[in-house]
Amino acid sequence: LVVLFIQNEQLQGKVTHQYIIMLFYTLFTEGLVTNEHICANLWEDTTLTCTVNTKEIVAQVTWQRKREPQNENFLTYFPGKEANHLNDFGRRVKFIGGGMTDGSIIIPYVTLADEDVYICIFTLFPSGPLEEEIVLEVSVPPITYADSNPNPPVVGSDKATVAICTAVNGKPGAMISWQTSLNYTTDEKRTRHKNGTETMESQLQMIPRMEIHQQNVYCVVQHCTLKTPAIVPVMLNIYYPPSVTMYVVQKDNGNLELICADNANPPATNKCAWFRDNAPIPASISVTENGHLNIVDLNSNINGLYWCDAMNPYGKSSGVLYL
């Protein structure tokens, strides 16, 4: 091409034009090297890499944020000089390139407001500017809460929510699952916030039974910012009416203790009230601090039918024993 340019003067303009086009093609195939799409975690220092592969002279490096109708310059760099920070955002940014072909920057403590499309421009001599876009997405780890239902379901009712797990203000939204051997279904609700974060709530639903009371289930939260899933244990809380069991224990000193054992949630309000059929409880029988009947004098006067009652807001139960 150079020989043709020299020998064919009448084609000078045309050949020169062809030569320039081929020069630009060569530069473009070398071009800029960037990380075109970056996913950064909130508050992390984030590097936007931008280098150029060229043998031309680098006259200037410019960084912009994409805007309409005109992009916003926030940093320029002239080789051999200090970087010029053009606005408040630019003053946050650290220029780490420093070399003739490296124009990389760091955005410290990246925030949601930093999520944007960035443009790196190398101005070369003599060919002119080369530019590349870099998309920065900011991920936000969710705050996770899990607990049993603050309004515990009652045995005998239909399927109900027994536990709630919430992953708050994640970006992107978190995924929630449950680990348990019990039969269950879930009801999920996702809320999108104006700042781009999402709150995910998962309600664990079961048929309330006494057998699942105080069983542990596990909320599992998965998110791109977490190296391993967050696992939160939850102990189930189920309300049910009392059930009463009565039995007699002989103490080492020979005394008898009449025990009324109740199982209720919430606990029985009267803590097992004692009664004797058709007669008062003899004076020789005392009630202990834990609600048991302590029988010291074993004689025929204590014979009779004894019963105890246990009550809570969801029912009442009685136990009966004959001495």
Brief synopsis:
It is a single-pass membrane protein. With 323 residues, the protein is mainly beta.
Keywords:
mainly beta; Immunoglobulin-like; 3 domains; 6-stranded mixed beta sheet; 4-stranded antiparallel beta sheet; 3 helices; 9% helix; rod-shaped; disordered N terminus; disulfide bond; Ig_sub; Ig-like domain-containing protein; transmembrane helix; CD80_C2-set
User: From the coordinates shown, what is the CATH architecture of the largest domain?
Assistant: Sandwich
Helix amount: under 10%
Element order: H for helix, E for strand: HHEEEEEEEHEEEEEEEEEEEEEEEEEE
State the domain count: 3
CATH topology of the largest domain: Immunoglobulin-like
CATH C-level class of the largest domain: Mainly Beta
As residue ranges, the low-confidence spans are 1-29
Q: What is the beta-strand fraction?
A: over 45%
Please state the structural category.
Answer: mainly beta
**What would the average pLDDT be, to the nearest integer?**
87
Strand order, biggest sheet?
2-11-10-5-6-7
Main β-sheet: number of strands, strand sense, barrel status? 6 strands, mixed
* Global Rg: 39 Å
Membrane topology: Single-pass membrane protein
GO cellular component, one term: adherens junction
GO biological process, one term: homophilic cell adhesion via plasma membrane adhesion molecules
Protein name: Ig-like domain-containing protein
